[in-house]
Here is the input.
Amino acid sequence: MDLSYSKEDLAFRDEVRAFLAEHLPEEVSSAVRSGGELTKAMMEEWHAILNTRGWLATIWPKEFGGPGWSPVQKHIFEEECCRAYAPRIVPFGLNMLGPVLIKFGSKKQQDHYLPRILDGTDWWCQGYSEPGAGSDLASLKTKAERDGEEWVINGQKTWTTLGQHADWIFCLCRTDHDVKQQAGISFILVDMATPGIEVRPIKLIEGGHEVNEVFFTDVRVPIGNLVGEENKGWTIAKFLLTHERTGIAGVGFSMQALEEVKSIARSTMRGARPLIEDPLFAARIAQAEIDLEAMKITNLRMLFKAQEQGAPGPETSLLKIKGTVINQELKDLARRALGPAATPFPGHVSEGNLMFGPADTEHNAARYFNNRKTSIFGGSNEIQRNIVTKTMLEL
Amino acid sequence: MDFNLTEDRQMLADTLGRFLGEKYPVEHRIKVAYDAPFQDPALWDQLVELGALYALAPEDAGGMGGSGFDISVVFEALGKSLCPEPVLGAMMASRIFAAAGADQETLLTGATKYAVGITEIDAPYELDQISTVATAKGDGFALSGRKSTVYGGQVADVVLVAAKHGGGLGVFAVNARDADVTGYGMMDGGGAAEVLLDDTPATLVLADASAALEDAVNAGIVALCAEAVGAMDVTHATTVDYLKQRKQFGIPIGKFQVLQHRAVDMLTEIEQARSITIKAAAELGGADASRYASMAKNMIGRAARLVGEESIQMHGGIAMTWEYAVSHYAKRLIMLDAQLGDTDYHLSQVMKGYAT
Ligand SMILES: Cc1cc2nc3c(=O)[nH]c(=O)nc-3n(C[C@H](O)[C@H](O)[C@H](O)COP(=O)(O)OP(=O)(O)OC[C@H]3O[C@@H](n4cnc5c(N)ncnc54)[C@H](O)[C@@H]3O)c2cc1C
Here is the structure.
């Protein structure tokens, strides 16, 4: 057993570090650090910078424009991006649709859509969930009916993340009502500019706008927008859910969060000493750090296993469960460390010397609340446990 | 032994419950709690007319209550409706006036709005770290320092400020218009203020005020705990109701045993929280008041976090939305930990007695 990075890995890490130091714009990283919402322009700018270097589609095969990295390299890259407070990659085109088109799309679809994902021409969003179909995704009702050379789509999607910026949406639609639920679903690409689509914002718990409802009324799209075979969309959906998930444990983000907790606890006072010297609070931080240290290795072990097997197994569910719990705990500790200084609604007290608490903590409580989503979306932690129960424990 | 409310208190609970239920439907609450002035002035007046403030002060101070149970009855009702009105500051101010034997007519009639400034940036919870100082000036005093997250401070006419004075702590009344007051909305709705004092004129309300401040804080803790119990009851009931309504995989999600058991665990913690709040209310004003207030605030901190987080998780995405009431209940439940001492602070207070 050898836990150290190889010489090549270390060289790669230095290369990534140097690149980030030189190319990550200061105003972008400080926006990430402060925890506020990023603008569309900032996200696009960062994508473009990575694309120029060939490091944007990190999980695509080389022949489609990926960098051809090993899982360890991908891991190093993600970790370094977190250390530098780079924005998260908007995953819908790059990490979701891209791999789907590469695996299931026609040559024509690949040639048309993939370059446009890379160069930022098309912003994609994910149209899976519906009001009645969350955990039970296969019960989705949005229907697509053939009419000559077109699909006619009617129904509603919801929780569509960053749909307000999107040019395209990939949808799971019901195309056959008379079979088992999973056997009547198709994967269809829809131009958001098509008549009959309406996007309505959903305001989240902390006041931000990152999700939307998307309504479809007689939306007509070309037959050719079907990906893979008709009624085989569930296979694609499942592929997407179990596909490459190096980042699912969110280790890099938790490392960020741990640093943040420590820095707040060093600069806030309790009982005439820095909070970090309070044994009760220090013990909480230490516990979270121990969990995170173990998670780093658990994550790498599972990465390696995935590399050997060629595909990640149900263990990724463990990563998601524990990874989100650790991250949420750290966000909780950060909020507590700030204490009353976490109270103001973001934007209300941010000027000059009135800003209180350490710098960059204005969005602290908002992030804590927003982050509750991580144990709900992408298959809730309850659903992940069900998966492990069935597949690993065979109960 | 009798765990029932007296007839008077039951009546008060019912009256307040009805009033708040009618006037503060959650849509209205969400609106006023997040828009300046972060409360509803008209409803404040009506709340006062109903006697909500009189219930918080003892008879010899001109009120009609003032015991721990009077306080918990009022705040439990406020908590059920997530009422953002600045009642906490009024109640704590009332206790300080009572200790000082000062007239509090204008407080009880609601004519003057009071807030209490104890917290400072480097003294979030502990009285002995207060650094704001009072100096004699003319026939009055001048205060310098900064009071932070003064709850209700965004609308207060007068702030009662705890400041260093004569080797101990004194409480001073500062007219809000004499100080540099910046009001703001809070993460969980309602308002607070930063109060900057720079040689600001003030009048002495009470010298040697440590005991009175401690009592005001203990009463504030009973109030916050009762508020949390009210909010937890509603949150839990809403969650259980949702478990019955929401169907996935063809059945109500409440049929999934993992969710059933967690709903039971929440209920257990809420009952425990209710009990420790009753205990703290019973001890308020007595020799062990601080110890039981600390126990209550610690347990409330733990229970409220559990209920806040689990209620969101068990709802799924819907409780992540601004439109759905549970998100606001969860925010209140979690943010009130940072008021008047958090879970860890009060744990360490309880531990303090062990070594001796
Ligand atoms: C901020 C945010 C962003 C999102 N972004 C997107 C997006 O871009 N695109 C998209 O398609 N979707 C998105 N989602 C939707 C997300 O995937 C769903 O919220 C998730 O699948 C859960 O569904 P639900 O919210 O309907 O909860 P429900 O499925 O109704 O679940 C409610 C509760 O019941 C539990 N539960 C359900 N079934 C079981 C079971 N069998 N056993 C035990 N417990 C169970 C759940 O774990 C949960 O606790 C997003 C959600 C959020 C909150």
